[in-house]
Amino acid sequence: MIQISNIKLNLNETEDLLSKKIAKKLRISVNDIERYEIAKKSLDARKKDQISYVYSLKIELNNEKSILAKIKSNLYTMPSSKKYITPEKGHEILNNPPIIIGTGPAGLMAGFILAKNGYEPILVEQGDMVEERTKIIDDFWKTGKLNEKSNVQFGEGGAGTFSDGKLTTGIKDVRCKEVLKLFVEFGAPKEILYESKPHIGTDILKKVVVNLRNEIIGLGGKFLFKTQMTDLILKNNKIAGVKINDDKILYSQIVILAIGHSARETFEMLYDREIQMIQKPFAVGVRIEHPQALINEIQYGQYAKHKSLNAADYKQVFHGIDNSSAHTFCMCPGGQVVAAASENGRLVTNGMSEYSRNMENANSAILVPVDRTTFGTDHVLGGMMFQRRLEEKAFLAGGSNYKAPAQCVGDLINGRASKSGSFVKPSYEPGVKWTSINEYLPERISNTIKEAILSMNKKMPGFAMNEAVLTGVESRSSSPVRVIREPITLESSNCKGLYPCGEGAGYAGGIMSAAVDGIKIADQIILKYK
Predict the structure, then answer these.
(1) Which CATH number goes with the domain that contains 108?
(2) Which of these, 220, 233, 363, 496, could form a disulfide with 120 (CB 3.0-4.6 Å)?
(3) 376: phi > 0 → left, psi -120 to 50 → alpha, else beta; which?
(4) What single-letter DSSP state applies at residue 93?
(5) Closest to 342 measured CA to CA, from 422, 264, 439, 229
(6) What domain range includes position 385?
(7) What's the chain's average pLDDT?
(8) Are 288 and 332 a contacting pair, CB within 8 Å?
């Protein structure tokens, strides 16, 4: 096959025309094309009056050698043949199945690769399976009754299960395509294989998680739900197993630590066990909500209501004159702001949308980077302590009942608290209390958010609309720690057999990168053990 790029279709053209576009570009007949497949599809909306879809295509030709001899070589490239291959198995003997702590993307992918290769892993999850977890979360959103073990942060599928289901990533790894293929195999739409910004939404992601779990079980793996790892069993700086629910021991010489970024009890246990960790910078802020129709108008102009366009997204960065900065994060078109707390007396927000992205509002986090200078301490868990302080203040500012503190953008800009809402109805459940973000955010951070919104408004006129809603606090953008691991073996730097993995351990930043890291860890175990 050969690959060609920059084939464009305007908004009124259908993909049925791609073969004619291919033939025209290569200066061949349509009959010379045996078949083609889409390698990449992206939307070019830089010019609002010339919005188009842009394709890269893999093409198989009839009589390929003779036809290629006539085509100019600068019109095509040869597609990469790199693909993920499971490594050859090692020679050391495993006395017990590998134990995987956490069933987010990292844990599930590590579990699948190990199960597929005969290692019969045991996956330990303190929360519930996704079906029961969904009911518990729905109840929390309606009543404000929090389950600290099973919530938006904890449970099968991880925190990403109740998000936008974004499958974008900045990493370059052959395992990325393998993850996408597996998602399609377990229920995701095939379009994620080539879309430039693939996403599957929380609704489809739940189905993928269930199918993946059933496949792992069918391959000999085992799941232990409502089961928390409460301690490590160590012997001569090596893993010997884990204690679960404070009273039972599972023995194994391999433990994959695929915890989430909110596994605070586990961070504290690791610290007490002197597992080497360091502080990790992250970012905090608020969620901003606009009418999705406004974002469509800003991004698409006259084509805002065109039937071939999906709900518009955006990505913005702000740099201030005093080295301050902010950025948008986890933008959810046609979605909602959700209650994402995992500890009593502490309030957290996040964004979520379904595959259709058809709800009334768009939302995104606006985050400001923080590090030890903001935390006020060099303690390894200083970032986690800082998160807790913000979340406690947000809980109080919202009325101490899991209603979220909210403020209109116009009030923030004019330096006053909000007394009531606007026509932009906050989507957060169980509701909001109108106040000021200064009630829970340090002044430096709230000022930076204000400056960022005004700056972003220059690129996206209307972004700083008075009625846009700010809901907080967004404090769980990534893990506040990194569990140090060896660069080659990927084992803990001071505990053999312990494999820090994924977002909670500080090695990923989203569904895709966490899933890839899970496969990388599984590969290392396969390389070493029979």
Answers:
(1) 3.50.50.60
(2) 220
(3) left
(4) P
(5) 264
(6) 282-474
(7) 96
(8) no
